[in-house]
Write a structure and sequence with these properties.
The protein is α/β, with parallel strands linked by helices. Helices cover 40% and strands 20% of the residues. The chain has a 6-stranded parallel β-sheet with strand order 1-4-3-2-5-6, sandwiched between helices. A hairpin with a 2-residue loop joins strand 8 and strand 9. Helix 10 runs antiparallel to helix 11. The structure holds adenosine monophosphate. Adenosine monophosphate binds next to helix 2 and strand 5.
Length: 280
């Protein structure tokens, strides 16, 4: 079944108003498109939990750090709609840019603290862009639950924080990272890797597993980080933005997993920035 593609907020509101009047629950899956099995796992989770499911596809200019990165981001709307057919979602919301940011748009949602570290430290303004668009999407879809991937762990914590702080009437559901056969976390950005780079990309996950093993054996991040970075360099990664152990919720830095912790990394391979994280 082909879901209707809705491009305006008023068109979407007409649908969600009718569903809410009928007492139906609404699940939202916000994405930037170029859908892969990671996204589709969120769609399945939403289908399992809600009466109605809206998938949103919007390549959000405000969360990119460079115009080239924004221009190069894969856009595959037709294929995306086809991939969603088997899930029989109720609407695909693909807002035009001026629906999201009309002339005079002047509001930014900014989450302090959590966004100062990790990707926030390396991508100025990125999480303001994410927080603003996610707030809008949660309000536009009038959803009861919204589904986000653990793949973007820091983003998930930022979204949980803003929903709590702004009393948005929506539950945030985190879903596990879906990986390729060789362990590489699925990502729309993987499409930008050459065959040669793709063959080396799983080294990121492998190096992280090795660090996690070392941590479980009682070693510290200081001891393990250098070896992991050398391994990544040997695999062809040109730089590592961070490889950090952090508390799983407030993202404070840890040397050892003395409380529930997440190992998070961002590294560059052939001009593509890959991120990943695992629980320790
Ligand atoms: P994006 O289109 O990259 O903005 O991602 C949209 C949503 O899909 C976000 O909540 C991501 O965390 C989630 N996502 C992306 N990749 C994966 C993956 N490999 N496994 C699970 N969720 C993912």
């Amino acid at each position: 079944m082909t879901a209707p593609i809705i491009r305006t907020v008023s068109g979407l509101r007409a649908m969600t108003d009718a569903w809410r009047r009928a007492g139906e629950t609404i699940g939202a899956v916000p994405t930037m498109g170029a859908l892969h099995d990671g996204h589709l796992s969120l769609v399945q989770a939403a289908k399992n939990a809600c009466d109605r499911v809206i998938v949103t596809i919007f390549v959000n200019p405000r969360q990119f750090n460079s115009p080239e990165d924004y221009a190069n981001y894969p856009r595959t709307e037709h294929d995306d709609a086809e991939k969603l057919e088997r899930f029989a979602v109720d609407a695909i919301f693909v807002p035009d840019g001026d629906q999201m940011y009309p002339a005079g748009f002047a509001t930014t949602v900014s989450v302090a603290g959590l966004t100062d570290v990790l990707c926030g430290a390396h991508r100025p303004g990125h999480f303001d862009g994410v927080a603003t668009v996610v707030t809008k999407l949660l309000l536009q879809t009038a959803c009861d639950k919204a589904f986000f991937g653990e793949k973007d762990w820091q983003q998930l914590q930022v979204v949980r924080r803003l929903v709590a702080d702004l009393n948005l009437p929506c539950e945030i559901v985190g879903c596990p990272t879906i990986r390729e056969m060789d362990g590489l976390a699925m990502s729309s950005r993987n499409l930008l890797l050459s065959d040669r780079a793709r063959a080396r990309a799983a080294a990121l996950h492998e190096a992280m597993e090795e660090v996690a093993e070392g941590l479980r054996a009682g070693r510290t991040m200081a001891e393990l980080r250098l070896k992991a970075e050398a391994r990544l360099e040997a695999a062809g990664f040109t730089s590592v933005d961070y490889l950090d152990l952090r508390a799983h919720d407030d993202l404070s830095a840890l040397e050892r997993p003395e409380r529930p912790a997440r190992l998070l990394a961002a590294a560059w391979l052939a001009g593509v920035r890959l991120i990943d994280n695992i629980g320790v």
